[in-house]
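agent: user wants the structure for Cyanobacterial aminoacyl-tRNA synthetase CAAD domain-containing protein from Vitis rotundifolia. delegating to structure tool.
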Amino acid sequence: MASTTTPLSISSSSTLIDGKAPRQSAAASSQCVTLPTLPPPPVASQNRPGKGTMYCRKIARNVIAMATGEAPAEVGTTEVPEIIKTALEAWDKVEDKYAVSSLAAAAFVALWGSTGMVSAIDKLPLVPGVLEIVGIGYSGWFAYKNLIFKPDREALIQKIKDTYKEIIGSS
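agent: tool returned. relaying tokens verbatim.
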């Protein structure tokens, strides 16, 4: 069996592709398709000079400091805010952490539900306006009853202090 091979030839027309004229090569007498060359890949040191080496130097410095027993110069103690210290101390004093966590989760769900209820009431016609008028009226009545005259103000301040002492404790 004799096999015959036929030469494969590609012919192209001189039409414009993507609005660009076809390239003509001086070396090739017939038209051929060539791809443009890609730019060289960026070198890592051009984008971020010395980032990898700085990290390695930092690790080496820490290893040397740990081996000698000295503290690294860059390591600084960060001060924890007072409110976090107080919260951690209060959490450590709690005996039944499961109950406190459950109450916190229930409070979150109740807050979420009440926000949804308030937004639903706010969408009803006339109800937000009526509630606003009731709130303005009660604020005016409270100010007239407790804030305008001096003896009433002093009684309100004393009542607030007594309630504060009752909740917090005598301090």
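agent: one observation worth passing along. The two ends are 112 Å apart (CA to CA).
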